[in-house]
Amino acid sequence: QVQLVESGGGSVQPGGSLRLSCAASGFSLDNYVIGWFRQAPGKEREGVSCFRSSDGDTYFGNSVKGRFTISRDNVKNTVYLQMNRLEPEDTAVYYCTADHSCTAWQLGMRYWGKGTLVNVSS
After folding, report:
1. Residue 104: which pLDDT band, with cuts at 50, 70 and 90?
2. Are the C-beta atoms of residues 120 and 15 closer than 8 Å to each other?
3. Strand, helix or coil at 89?
């Protein structure tokens, strides 16, 4: 069965960097897309990115474009979200997600991890 496990969350000062990991099991990254979402207390869920391993296409939400990047390790079947120049507004629980397509990705994904907390504060 599809399983997603996030890690790498923590506290960081504004302007700092953090790398989140999404370890996937039960499927190959070549057959799925990996999305990152985040949700802060009192706010609606926000799409961060969608990554299609088959061709490397990557989509980012407007609030993180130019600051976040995606990479993958095919051997470990793991996708990484590199977050740079973090801002307090980036504070949220970040979720790794998976589905079959990045089409309309911001509307949601089929499979979700449990999330990892990122806190950006001075």
Report:
1. confident
2. no
3. helix
In this predicted structure, the answer to whether residue 95 has a pLDDT above a threshold of 90 is: yes
Report the run of H or E that residue 30 belongs to, with start and end.
Answer: none
Q: Which two tokens stand for residue 84?
A: 């740079």
Nearest to 24 by CA among 101, 87, 98: 98
Residue pair 95/112 in contact (Cβ under 8 Å)? The answer is yes
Which of residues 105 and 36 earns the better pLDDT score? 36
CA 32 – CA 98 distance, rounded (Å): 6
Q: How far is CA 108 from CA 36, 37, 97, 101, 111, in A?
A: 10, 9, 9, 11, 9
